[in-house]
Design a protein that fits this description.
This protein has nine helices and ten strands. It is α+β, with helices and mostly antiparallel strands. α3 packs across α4.
Length: about 260
């Protein structure tokens, strides 16, 4: 079957070039190089990368499987949709990260209510277990398609005023700072890859087992109070994470001088 790459034999010999060419084309697609134009033809790509057309077909099959391109017989291969890029270089809400507003990002609010804090939530927000906290659950829509499922927990004194505000068209970060006067300072962040289970697949319009990016983020005010605990599930085909990382030398270990005999 075209596009099936196995280890060993003739197909196995194609793995490395397929991987390399796929990565180059994938980077171009996400950078918007092709726009609404079709990708170069198989013959053009084969000549550019000095590869066989079978290798190019394998590459295009992988990109199609990932949902980045679609092939229209007799017309060409087109970019289906670029991924949204969420910056990790500073603390930002979703709409802030894309430099956009309610024209593109809309929230489908599934839950906005007071609930008792579970022990895990209470520990992170530094409140007593069973204390009332405000729970928000939203499907974040980008350009009319689901991008993520967000579950947020906030202390009651902070979250309760949000229940009277427009949660469908505003980032919580913006509401906290601009409406409640609570400047944010920093956040703890963890990221992992998970598969969509049946409780989220329908909400994100994907199949069971679809790849998701799972982010847990605990945001603090500039005075150091934990104020917003989030569990965010991003669709892996619609979101990528990017940042600018500086390398600084690690402090030299304190080695004691060896004793002389």
């Amino acid at each position: 079957m075209t596009g099936t790459i196995t280890g060993g034999g003739a197909a196995g010999s194609r793995i490395a070039p397929v991987r390399r060419i796929r990565d180059v084309l994938r980077t171009r697609i996400l950078a918007g190089v092709y726009g609404t134009r079709p990708l170069p033809s198989e013959a053009q790509l084969a000549a550019e990368f000095r590869a066989s057309r079978n290798i190019v077909r394998d590459v295009l099959t992988l990109l199609r499987t990932e949902g980045l391109v679609d092939r229209i017989p007799g017309v060409g291969t087109f970019v289906v949709s670029g991924k949204a890029v969420h910056g990790l270089d500073r603390l930002r809400g979703l709409a802030e990260s894309f430099g956009t507003g309610p024209a593109r990002v809309v929230n489908q609010v599934l839950l906005a209510d007071a609930v008792p804090a579970t022990p895990a939530v209470a520990e992170r927000l530094e409140v007593e277990a069973g204390t009332e906290v405000i729970a928000l659950e939203r499907v974040r829509m980008l350009d009319g398609e689901p991008l993520s499922l967000d579950a947020s927990y906030l202390p009651a004194d902070v979250g309760r005023p949000l229940l009277e505000m427009d949660l469908a068209r505003n980032d919580v970060f913006v509401l906290l700072e601009q409406e409640l006067g609570l400047p944010l300072g920093a956040a703890e962040l963890s990221i992992e890859a998970i598969a969509a289970d049946r409780t989220v697949a329908d909400l994100l319009r994907v199949r069971d087992g679809f790849p998701l990016l799972f982010i847990e983020r605990l945001t603090y005010t500039d005075s150091g109070r934990p104020i917003d605990l989030e569990f965010v599930r991003f669709r892996g085909d619609r979101m990528s994470l990017a940042g600018w990382l500086h390398r600084t030398p690690d402090p030299l270990p304190n080695h004691s001088s060896p004793e002389r005999g």
